[in-house]
Amino acid sequence: MLNTVKTLEWRGDALRIIDQTRLPTEQVYLDLRTVPEVAEAIKTLRVRGAPAIGIAAAFGVVLGVLAADDPPEALRAAAEQAIEELAATRPTAKNLFWALQRMRRVVEQTANQGKSVLLERLLTEANAILEEDRQACRAMGRHGASLLPDRCTVLTHCNAGALATADYGTAVGVIYAAAQAGKRIRVYADETRPLLQGARLTAWELMQAGIDVTLICDNMAAWVMRTVGIDAVLVGADRIARNGDVANKIGTYNLAVLAHRHGVPFYVVAPLSTFDPEIDSGEEIPIEERSPQEVTHPFGVQIAPEGVKVFNPAFDVTPAELISAIVTERGIVSPPLAEGIRKLLDGNEKS
Ligand code: MRU
Fold first, then answer.
1. Burial classification of residue 126, based on how many CB atoms lie within 10 Å of its CB (0-12 exposed, 13-18 middle, 19 or more buried)
2. Which CATH number does 8-138 carry?
3. pTM, 2 dp
4. Phi-psi bin for 49: left (phi > 0), alpha (psi -120 to 50), beta?
5. Active-site residue list
6. Residues with Cβ within 6 A of ligand 1?
7. Can you tell me which atom of ligand 1 is nearest the CA of 170?
8. For all residues of the chain together, what is the average pLDDT?
9. 141-350: what fold?
10. Mutate which of 197, 233, 267 to test ligand 1's pocket (most atoms within 8 Å of Cβ)?
11. Of all protein residues, whose CA lies closest to atom 6 belonging to ligand 1?
12. Which one of 3, 20, 284, 332 is at 20 to 30 Å from 67 when CA atoms are compared?
C-alpha cells in the first residue's frame, strides 16, 4: 500500500493543510479559518501545486461566507470579496480560477436562499472539486503508467505529487500507479531552484511511499540523461493553452529541450481543470514573478551580493512541439496536441 500524505482536508469549520514550507524537517498542520489565512497560505506556498491551490481556494470561499450574514446581498458581497482576494494570490495556475468560477456560479444560483442553504451548497461544491481531483489523479495514474516500460528510470521536476493535489498527484501519480502495477521504477528528482519543491517535497513524499528516488541539482539533468539513461521525463502543469503549450515550474522548458536532444519522451500530466480554453497559445499565459529574496537569500541565507539585479519567474512555458504527450483523466493526448485538446475541451461541459 502506498502511504501518501493528506495535503488538505475540511474539518467542519476550518481548512486543514500540511504546511509545505516546513517540510521535510517538520510535519506541521495548520487550521485555516479565514479568507486572509487561506490567501496567505497560497501566496507563501504553504499550500501549492495547481490542483491543491484550486481546492484550497474553493474552501476559502466557504470560509468567507461562513463569516458573513444574511441578507443575500451581504452574502453575495462577502463571497465576491473572498473570490477576489483568493484570485489575487497567484496568477499562473488555471485551476485556481477554474475552482473560483465554480464557486461563483453556486453563489449566483443560491445566495437568494439564505445563508444556511448557500453554505451547504458551497461546501458540497468544494468537496466535489476535491473528490473530482482525487478521481482524476487515479485515472491519470492509470493512463500514464501505460506509457512506461516495466523497468524504467524517470526524471521529474518540482512537485506534482500528493502534496500538490487531493490524492497522489499528477506526474508523480503516474509513478505511484506504475509502481502499484508492479513496474520497477526509479526516479531522479530535480531539486527545483529556487524554492526546492523537488528536494523538499518530491524526494520526501517518494521516500515516504517507498519509491526509489535520487535527488539531483537542476543543472545535472543533461548529464543524467547522457550517463544514467532516462526513459521518460514526467512533469505536471499549471496551465495548458489550446495549442498544447504548457506552463509549469521554471526549469521545465530546460528539461524539454534536453529531452528532445537526448531522444527522451517528455510527458505532461494534468487534469482538465488545468486547461485554459480561452487562450490560443502559451504567449497569453500570465507568468508569476516572485520576490528576488527567494534567489538571493534562499531559506534566509544570503548567497548573492546585496543589491544584485534578479529575475525570478516562477514558471516557464514549454512549446507544444517539445511535448510527446499530455496525460489527462480522460486519456492520453498525442501530437498534434492542438487537435487532441480541441476534441478534449469540446467534450468537457465544465471547462
Ligand atoms: O510554485 P508551485 O510549487 O505551486 O509550482 C507547482 C508546479 O509547478 C507543479 O508542477 C504544477 O502545479 C502541477 S501540480 C500537480
1. buried
2. 1.20.120.420
3. 0.97
4. left
5. 238
6. 45, 48-51, 93, 158, 160, 164-165, 169-170, 197, 236-238, 248-249, 314
7. 15
8. 96
9. Rossmann fold (3.40.50)
10. 197
11. 49
12. 20
